[in-house]
């Protein structure tokens, strides 16, 4: 059985649980992203919220990607990691005044605006500084991403974005504002999307919207399609790089791009998920009446995705080759949702074995909490070993 390329002997000396990042895989992924997007001249901003570990951010910045931020803290982290200010875009439904001011002061590339109310505040704050903010309007294209309800965002009457029916009003109000400049349209329909037809529908929709706007005499400098490309959580060893080729090809094939228009993307998960694993030690094997539990020293405070979104992460016992048995893999936290997997086959586990929870590089470390007064997980990188 393939267990990935882990330096298991060196892991034994480290305090668990910890995140392990394969920097070589991240670099290979970035090469694919650059090649597949670059052939069409597309611009890619990495969605910092997926993982803001400074070493990963620095590597992504070195590869020339921009940053998609959803908070002032993320803008600061992106700048510190070396992302140039003119490659930073800023989305989010609840931008606080200090966050907008930070974006204005650091002259970021674009505010992705999610409501008329926000637009007015940006106009006012930019006016006070005597500057003009570049904005894109985030619209709800009403495309079903066919993904988990907690990560779908492109449907109508969502807290995110501006509904299409309200777009004319917003544009009208914008005409009276002198400190915002409309530069683009933005959309983001959800996350962990593996069905390319969702992206096809999105492009077709945006083509229609663009046509409507042009009838009103409005042409935008850039179109931003957000993130959302999914990865294969089931086969991390065989399919470690997301289908960036198919993904960008959909846009190239279907998008009615206007001459000189820029096309932007904001992938998060697809860039960093595969390179990270949560490494944890088995504390106890508890034999129940009908079930066997492997109780780990990692819990949902370290990786919340299974508890929050019923997410699947492949689990591997890195230190056993004994025949497989069925386990529920659980954490130590005093909540019944602290379960990583149920009834999965694993090489026989004993106290002290090391488990890897694979494909945990996105929405893992960054979502860690100190609930139960636990320590935050640390991070180790492949080039340390
Ligand atoms: C979360 C988010 C992304 C990244 O989504 P992934 O599914 O991780 O690719 C991109 N853009 C916006 C606006 C987001 O909120």
Q: Can you offer a commentary on this structure?
A:
With 385 residues, this protein is α/β, with parallel strands linked by helices. It contains eleven helices and 17 strands. The strands form two sheets. Strands 1, 11, 12, 13, 14, 15, 16 and 17 form an eight-stranded mixed sheet that branches. An eight-stranded parallel barrel has the order 2-3-4-5-6-8-9-10, surrounded by four helices. Strand 3, helix 4 (72-80) and strand 4 form a beta-alpha-beta unit. Helix 5 crosses helix 6 (116-129). The longest helix has 20 residues, at 196-215. It is elongated, with a radius of gyration of 22 Å. The model has no long low-confidence stretch (mean pLDDT 95). The protein binds pyridoxal-5'-phosphate.
């Amino acid at each position: 059985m393939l267990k990935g390329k882990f330096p298991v002997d060196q892991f034994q000396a480290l305090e668990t649980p910890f995140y392990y990042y394969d920097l070589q895989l991240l670099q290979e992924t970035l090469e694919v992203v650059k090649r597949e997007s670059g052939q069409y001249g597309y611009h890619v901003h990495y969605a910092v919220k997926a993982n803001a570990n400074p070493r990963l951010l620095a590597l992504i910045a070195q590869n020339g990607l921009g940053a998609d931020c959803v908070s002032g803290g993320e803008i600061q982290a992106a700048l510190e990691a070396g992302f140039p200010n003119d490659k930073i875009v800023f989305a989010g439904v609840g931008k606080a005044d200090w966050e907008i001011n930070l974006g204005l002061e650091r002259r970021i590339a674009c505010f992705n605006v999610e409501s008329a109310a926000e637009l007015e505040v940006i106009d006012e704050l930019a006016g006070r500084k005597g500057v003009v903010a570049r904005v894109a309007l985030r619209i709800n294209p009403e495309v079903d991403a066919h993904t988990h309800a907690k990560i779908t965002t492109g449907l109508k009457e969502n807290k995110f974005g501006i509904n299409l029916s309200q777009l004319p009003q917003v544009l009208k109000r914008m005409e009276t504002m002198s400190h915002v400049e409309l530069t683009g349209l933005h959309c983001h329909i959800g996350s962990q999307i593996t069905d390319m037809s969702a992206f096809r529908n999105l492009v077709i929709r945006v083509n229609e919207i663009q046509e409507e706007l042009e009838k009103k005499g409005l042409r935008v400098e850039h179109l931003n399609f957000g993130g959302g490309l999914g990865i294969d959580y089931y086969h991390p060893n065989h399919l470690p790089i997301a289908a960036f080729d198919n993904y960008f090809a959909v846009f190239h094939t279907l998008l009615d791009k206007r001459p000189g228009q820029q096309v932007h993307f904001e992938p998060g998960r697809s860039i960093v998920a595969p390179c990270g694993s949560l490494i944890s030690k088995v504390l106890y094997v508890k034999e129940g009446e009908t079930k066997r539990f492997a109780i780990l020293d990692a819990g949902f405070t370290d990786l919340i995705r299974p508890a929050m979104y019923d997410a699947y992460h492949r689990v591997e016992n890195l230190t056993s080759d004994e025949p497989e048995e069925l386990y529920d893999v659980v954490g130590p936290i005093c909540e019944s949702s602290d379960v990583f997997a149920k009834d999965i086959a694993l090489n026989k586990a004993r106290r002290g074995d090391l488990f890897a929870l694979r494909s945990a590089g996105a929405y893992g470390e960054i979502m860690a909490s100190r609930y139960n007064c636990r320590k935050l997980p640390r991070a180790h990188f492949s080039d340390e070993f």
